[in-house]
Amino acid sequence: MKIGIPKEIKNNESRVGMTPAGVFELTKNKHTVYIETNAGFGSGFFDQDYKDAGAVILNTPSEVYAAANMIVKVKEPIQAEYNLIKPHHVVFTYFHFASSSELTNAMIKTGAVCIAYETVESEDGSLPLLTPMSEVAGRMAIQQGAKYLEKPIKGRGVLLGGVPGVPPGRVLVLGAGVVGIQAAKMAAGLGAHVTIMDINMKQLRYVNDIMPNHVVTEFSSEYNIRKRITNHDLIVGGVLIKGAKAPKLITRDMLKDMRPGTVIVDVAVDQGGCVETSKPTTHEHPTFIIDDVVHYCVANMPGAVPYTSTLALTNVTLPYVMKLANLGWEKACEKDQTLAKGLNIVNGKIVYKEIEDAFNVVLN
């Protein structure tokens, strides 16, 4: 198969869809890989690395799309890429369709096969292609939250770990999934007091077993959330409903109950956000302030650490890319139900129920 890896052009997105090691495995299996020049530069991988791995370097994205049958990316296509995608393409990337009607309609119009990393689902309900980026984002949420708590950036002026004689900062984590657990682990490591909330008691028991004593669990309800936001310094939104919009756990009226300079890091923003006032931001302009509450809502957080992220992503995507390349998308999805759940749009038709529900359209 002919596989294309274009350069990511979303604001400050430095990851790339495949490492040279991944390209080597594909070319070893007699597939042709086309990669746009400098596509890996931001992640620390250079054109010569890809050439040595057997890739063909092309100068423009239009050449890559024209040469390839399957496109492997990191982030969803943006407007400049819509017209490059044709009916014969299989596009394998993060899409998060439920948060964007524009993207959904654009991909329907292309007639392409859209397979979303974030909905590839194992039998146990885990999301193998979302997990590594959720791990990165969860850990980064505390890094970024700690920074934006600093007073020069309009935060409360709180050091999360505290110092002798001064109590540590308080972190509220909404969601005890991959993002939430990684955020809690990092916050606990800094010495912060952490409260992690979820509606899944089995998951809360697991967190209670593995975390130190200064990480406490609490059942998630509007009453409990309203109570906790009044005295926590950093709030991390790590809620996920597979393929669907995130529920709004913090509403606009709740902001008035938070102390000035409280920081919200809404990791769920790429699925619409779990905070009503969230809107996607970029690494260039990562924050905004509403009612004296600092909102950090970067939709591609792992893009800030592209070397780590690209390696972690290729580790999990490569086996699926190989199946798609070896068998074609139809046979690959027929043989692998985990991969089949990644099918979101096929030849102009939505085939994933949660996206249908998000836009209230009829499944074909």
TrEMBL record:
Residues annotated for substrate binding in this entry: 15, 75
Pfam families, per the entry: AlaDh_PNT_C, AlaDh_PNT_N
GO biological process: L-alanine catabolic process
UniProt keyword annotation of Repeat present: no
Catalysed reaction, written as an equation: L-alanine + NAD(+) + H2O = pyruvate + NH4(+) + NADH + H(+)
Keyword Oxidoreductase: yes
Protein origin, superkingdom: Bacteria
Matching InterPro entries: Ala_DH (IPR008141), Ala_DH/PNT_CS2 (IPR008143), AlaDH/PNT_N (IPR007886), AlaDH/PNT_NAD(H)-bd (IPR007698), NAD(P)-bd_dom_sf (IPR036291)
Cleaved signal peptide residues: none
Protein's name according to its UniProt entry: Alanine dehydrogenase
Family under the similarity heading: Belongs to the AlaDH/PNT family.
EC number: 1.4.1.1
Enzyme class: oxidoreductase
Gene3D superfamilies cross-referenced by the UniProt entry: NAD(P)-binding Rossmann-like Domain
SUPFAM superfamilies the record matches: Formate/glycerate dehydrogenase catalytic domain-like (SSF52283), NAD(P)-binding Rossmann-fold domains (SSF51735)
Species this chain originates from: Paucihalobacter ruber
Annotated Gene Ontology cellular component terms: plasma membrane
Binding, NAD(+): 134, 198, 220, 239-240, 267-270, 298-301
